Give the backbone structure.
Amino acid sequence: MRFLVLIWLVTYLPHEGAAQQSGLSPAPDARTVRINAEPGFFNEPSIAIDPDDPQQLVAAFQVNASVAYSRDGGKTWTIADGTAPADFRRSGDVSITYDNKGRAYLCYIAFDKLGTANYWAHGATRNGIFVRRSSDGGKNWDANPAIVISHNTEPGIPFEDKPYIVADITRSPHAGNLYVGWTEFTLEKSIILFSRSSDGGTTWSKPIEISTHEGLPRDETGSVEGFTGAVDSDGTLYVAWADGSEIAFASSRDGARTFSRSRSILHTAPSYFDVFNVARGNGFPQIGIDPRSHRLFVIWADYQNGDIDVFCSTSTDRGKHWSPAVRVNSDSLHNGADQFMQWLAVDPADGSANVIFYDRRGDPENRKVSITLARSADGGKSFANFAWNSNAFDPGEQFIGDYNGIAALGGRVYGVWARTPETEENADKSKTQKVRNYVEAGTATFTK
């Protein structure tokens, strides 16, 4: 199997100007590295840490479904071959994880052609959700992906969208299980479907619906979207997603054979919205857990304060009750600056909640974007904000994705995000490439 090797040997600290622009101090020992050699349609990244070897990382991005791996704690990255399916025209909406045996899993959708814009099930072509496995930390990937769900082109088929994969790496009776949840769009509605694997991702259970309340059929506010999940130390699986102006929540205590009825736990402003100078944005929730204290975290973004902010709520009784929302971004309230496209990682070693998001507090015109890392060491009561990337960038109304990625273990935090090129990176390419992004990876260290 051939590999396209793109190793970037130079890492760099955030420029002093970036910290001055945002008014934030750089994250401790912050370093960033560009993963792609050339700009392209690269966005929506996801990142994971091997729990048995924290120096080993994998990061996924689109399009098509791609993976980069690092064996030196994120200092250098190599892009692997053989991750995108050859028998579909497009693949993306990636998520990635490691299981309890150090195997990496890439989950993605694949399709030939989208249906009507936003009304994806109208005129949908063959599509499905697939999982590919790597037994060597991300370098080599199984040639034949496992099928979670798939459809051949025929009138009235649904469109499967936005899957997210979760692994049980605990010592519970369900250790080693893999879980995938996603949105299924039909002509009449949207629902959250779920499937599980207990054999290392080789086979997947028949999908079940776990959304008690079903959403509207368009990929806009009113649908049910943005599934994420987190596994407690006893193997309990907690899941959440956006349902209009609500956050829905459910749980399973039997290895995801059955679920509680999903219910609304938090009322929000709509979490699907337009963002100035960006093709699209959303604030879909993420759920995480501190396995030591069983504290649950839910992070989302909305515009209840006028400009877009990131929020956090927590639960200490397994999701029965939730705290009032805490604002994650630390800039002044109602200052007109947007913070959006957040993602959450709870460090299982120290219980800290780590959040990455795009941040415009440094630009009075609310146009340019920086990367901010927010961290809570007090159970989500407060968040310190740090500058993470090298320079603010102008999205230029391009599609930079629906989400970014973050992972944390033992005080080391790793992030991945999409950004448009800086002037010196553009050269003459901007004249020929309408869509161009890089995926960039960052590290920060909070250990003493």
